């Protein structure tokens, strides 16, 4: 591709072949080729991708204390207090947080919101691993054009620096998020992955609620609740945190965007997709179309049944209702879709990242094309006689 060095080609958005396994086996399908060892867990913020979890810390399992609190500032406060005690230097302490708090890659950080930061970081790790396998395939004497977008995060390129980061952490005692970010910046290595790789040897792990409450996060961090001690700070916040972890909201316009992105993706790639991918992507379209009906139907029934009540009560704008999951699926005629398998496909195939990446590319192409058209018109106005 002629423009390979500056931007991703359409093929970079092509999802890998997906094989579906037997019905009833909730192990479900799997990608033929694992995406570079990267696991996109449901909490895609937690993963174990860069291989920096070395064997060097393979020690006998020891008693660990997990201290968790709701916010990062509360965790930092706890570390500050801990530093005033003798324990700060006697115990190995590690403080965990989100990429948003830890990331030191300015290009990634300026994306602003946590989801985009997580996704970009994971994308960089995947691209790095793809690049490594490309180089291996070409062989020692071969030449390859390095794709600018495929270089991985510069803060993770030197494995040696991650090792040094861990040794500095051990020497400096209890460090809070700010300290770790400062250390990462001064060493030019990622504090997010640096701190996570310290978990196996830590006596005390200080972490946000979500990292402890989500099974996927616990597994990726190697946290084992059995025979260890868990301290929950301000436990009255626990119920709200659990609700917010498993609560999802979507608006009609978001749903329409998702549906149109999937449709465009399918139009572009349907001829090259394998049967497994084709079937699941079509199922996704059926589902998003059905979910849209909820809003549209809701709007109509809202008009019929709620307007009078609303007028009477003075409320405006929203109608609410709740349904059991099975009733909901039956009402939309999608009760025949195996949601467990579909979810598994979404996680394993990485389809949503491909779809949204391709959607962004199309949108940016359309925007540039529009700007160019406006400029051309300004430079060469068409005379109307
Ligand atoms: S590897 Fe670290 S510094 Fe790089 S993007 Fe991810 S979180 Fe940010």
TrEMBL record:
GO biological process terms, semicolon-separated = establishment of sister chromatid cohesion
Q: Does the keyword section mention Hydrolase? A: yes
Q: Which residues form the Helicase ATP-binding domain?
A: 1-306
Among InterPro entries, the record links this protein to: DinG/Rad3-like, Helic_SF1/SF2_ATP-bd_DinG/Rad3, Helicase-like_DEXD_c2, P-loop_NTPase, RAD3-like_helicase_DEAD
Q: Where is the composition biased (Acidic residues)?
A: 7-24, 44-57
UniProt region (Disordered), positions on chain: 1-57
Q: Which residues form a coiled coil?
A: none
One cellular-component annotation, GO: nucleus
- According to the record, the signal peptide region is none
Keyword tags: ATP-binding, Hydrolase, Nucleotide-binding
Matching SUPFAM superfamilies: P-loop containing nucleoside triphosphate hydrolases (SSF52540)
Give the PANTHER family listed for this entry. Answer: ATP-DEPENDENT DNA HELICASE DDX11-RELATED, DNA REPAIR DEAD HELICASE RAD3/XP-D SUBFAMILY MEMBER
Report the protein name in the record: Helicase ATP-binding domain-containing protein
